Amino acid sequence: MLPSNIPINPFSSPNSKFENKTYNQPILIILKRADYFKVRGTINKHQALLSFEKCIFKHEISFEIDGEFPLGLFFRFSGCVIDSMDVSTIISKRINLFFFSCYVKRLHGKNPSFTRITIQNCIGEFLLNGFKSADISYTKENIFPKVWLQILATHRDLTKTKTSYHIDNVENINFHSNILEDAPKKSRIERKRNEAIKDYKIRFVPSLDFITSISISLTIDYKEDGIANDFSITSSCLKSITLRGKLMGKLKIEDSIIDNIYMHNFTADQNFRLFQVKSFVMKSGNFEIHKSFLDESWFYGVRFDSYNIVSFYRSNLANTKFTSTVFQSKGLDYEVFKSLKNVHYPNERNDSYQRDQYELFLQLKMALLKTGNTFESQRMQRIAFNSLEKVNHLNFEDRTILRLNRWTNMHGTQPKNAFFLFFGFTFLLYVIYLETLGLHINVNNDFDWKLIGHYFSFINIAHKLNFLVEKDSLTGASMIVDFINRILAGYLIYQFISAFRKFGKK
């Protein structure tokens, strides 16, 4: 048998505060217009109508409201442990909910009418569906150990507690933080002697390691018929963020550490900006863009190289703006970049994987060329051709050309390959050429420096046939070797110059 509700009527004692209480039964907060008009003259609108501090709610908190109120009503929860809260039945537009340093196992509600929900330095699960306004923040100056006493009693290791926000069609939302600013190497305790509130005299200053150990995930779902809103995420530390649907309004994410970024069926334009974002630990986490259209979106200073896997799968990126973005410092294949149907199963690849890789890097090349970044665009072209070489059913001629270009100058990006191959092959051919004429560079450990000097005439592809001996002394074999040398030397010289001019190409 379910326990019966404990009814609480805030109008029976306006501006009441409950401290250090444990509720073993469900709580029903009852707000009736008739009761309000009886006591409205005694309500202090600058204080919370009802305040709970360091309380434990072992069952759900719900609301029963019979209409609208002429003035705003403010409810405050500070340092509380809340098993569940249902806000769906809040039909008054003048209700404000404020949560400070609380553990909320589950807060849910669909299309409530109240004005605003404010969540500051809280952990738990928050399902915000159709809310009018939400303000979420994590601030380093408002972490007070005494406020967290009740929570720490039941959750000693906060790093094992996962926090998630599922935001669906919220009209006005802000997610802000300053917790990464000037984070110390070691956590410390500070005392504020001049603080009037007793619980606020001791403040906890978290280290960067502690901040990044807290798991906070954010999921944002946009609806095509949803309400446009401006959403910004700054100086935040998130375990993951997931974006879905068609962006309505503006979205800006900047100066943040985000270990996992997922964009699934996400459509955005110039109103989407991703600035100065990276994973906390190098080569950790995933960055996935899956079946998304990011036309004219702007990626600035994104550290793709900090992620373990970067997957762009069947997405439009040709018109995406990439500036000051670090893709990969070394490596031909850019192994972190993949075209995966599911980034969590990197070994599962479809038959068109290499073709998808080719198309992906061509799109990135086009996007980078539009910003004038020829250096990175040539890298992308190099990797695109390397993927094309691996495509099944590619004809023999095209595969051979791609392989030769990869071996000689890495598809126009590395002149050293052509340089060393040039001298290696031409010197070998010169030795063979001399053998066909009965000549030797080294006889009994005695080098013929004159023959070594003639090597530089040999590598001149315009040299005369009789540069070393008279024409009558030439053999068929020597002329064949000479011809092969001219073709090979000319090809390698061209490959060297082509790669050496990579910064002058358009």
Question: How is this structure best described in words?
Answer:
The chain is of the alpha/beta class. It is built from nine helices and 30 strands. It has a 26-stranded parallel β-sheet that branches. A two-stranded antiparallel ribbon has the order 16-17. Strands 29-30 form a two-stranded antiparallel sheet. Helix 4 packs antiparallel against helix 5, helix 5 packs across helix 6 and helix 7 packs antiparallel against helix 9. The longest helix is centred in the last third of the chain and has 25 residues. The radius of gyration is 34 Å and the shape is elongated.
Summarize the structure.
The chain is of the alpha/beta class.
Strand content: 25-35%
Structural class: alpha/beta
Backbone shape: elongated
Distance between the termini: 76 Å
Oligomer: single chain
How many helices in DSSP terms? 9
Q: Main beta sheet: strand number and arrangement?
A: 26 strands, parallel
Compute the average pLDDT: 87
Radius of gyration: 34 Å
Give unreliable regions as ranges.
Answer: none
| Helical residue percent band | 10-25%
Tell me the total number of β-strands: 30
Quickly list its features.
elongated; 506 residues; alpha/beta
List the helices and strands and how they pair.
Layout: E1 6-8, E2 16-19, E3 22-23, E4 27-31, H1 33-39, E5 50-53, E6 56-65, E7 73-78, E8 81-86, E9 95-100, E10 103-110, E11 116-120, E12 123-129, E13 133-138, H2 149-154, E14 162-168, E15 172-177, E16 188-191, E17 202-205, H3 208-213, E18 215-221, E19 229-234, E20 237-246, E21 249-268, E22 272-278, E23 286-290, E24 293-294, E25 298-300, E26 309-313, E27 321-323, E28 337-338, H4 353-370, H5 374-389, H6 396-409, H7 415-436, E29 442-443, E30 446-447, H8 449-458, H9 476-500
Parallel strand pairs: 1-4, 2-5, 3-6, 4-6, 5-7, 6-8, 7-9, 8-10, 9-11, 10-12, 11-13, 12-14, 13-15, 14-18, 15-19, 18-20, 19-21, 20-21, 21-22, 21-23, 21-24, 22-25, 23-26, 25-27, 26-28
Antiparallel strand pairs: 16-17, 29-30
